[in-house]
Amino acid sequence: MAAPVLWLLALCTAPAAAAAAAPPPPPADAEVTFVLPAGRRECFYQGAPANASLEAEYQVIGGAGLDVDFSLESPSGRLLVSEYRRSDGAHTVEPTEAGDYKLCFDNSFSTISEKLVFFELIFDAAREDEEEEEEEEEEGEEGAWRGAPEDALDVKIEDIKESIETMRSRLERSLQLQTLLRAFEARDRNLQENNLGRVNFWSAASLAVLVLVAVLQVCLLKSLFQDKGPART
């Protein structure tokens, strides 16, 4: 009875060891829209695993000038990105370090106008891990085709699962691109509304000046034709 017990223990511990050896999945993607007050600097922290890919994109969608200072620091304190007076940007960090990345948005150069900022963080697994998984899957498929028909059926099921997972990742990427396009649209709409307000203001100011000049000219002409001398009897 000792041999079957050991065989069952090996079956139970093998999945647990494989799960422990598997790398942790990347964090979920994040999307944030916030108001950055005038003269302020706001920082955000995002944890990341080792040997992954981090893509950071940001847009200034509201506020005068549509610009902001941006910086990105690694968990070890190394400055990765430093940009000044930019309206948008996209940066990729690969491979990542294990720890918290620091993203800062600075509006201290503006003393009046606040900014509406949108940024998005996208995580992907490391390419080396993906390549190793693909090689293992190819080797498994070759062995399954040389083996029993049941193994070939399992391979087909794995192919279907892989196709579904690929479709899911592509749909998620499509949603991310749509969110980014909405940020572009919001920025353009705010810019158009600001331009419309400026056009209306200066049009009203120009009309007021024209009316004032017309009234002054009429009064000046009337004063020229008025006889201010003494009346003769």
Q: Could you explain how this protein is built, in words?
A:
Mean pLDDT is 76; it is low at 1-22. The protein is of the alpha+beta class. It is built from three helices and eight strands; from the N terminus they run αββββββββαα.
Q: What's the helix and strand layout?
A:
Elements: H1 2-21, E1 30-36, E2 41-48, E3 53-62, E4 68-73, E5 79-86, E6 88-93, E7 99-106, E8 115-124, H2 127-146, H3 149-225
Helix pairs in contact: 2-3
Quick synopsis:
With 233 residues, this protein is α+β, with helices and mostly antiparallel strands. The chain is built from three helices and eight strands, in the order αββββββββαα. The termini are far apart.
Structural class: alpha+beta
Q: How can the largest sheet be summarized?
A: 4 strands, antiparallel
Roughly how much helix do the residues carry, as a percent range?
A: 40-55%
Beta-strand fraction estimate? 25-35%
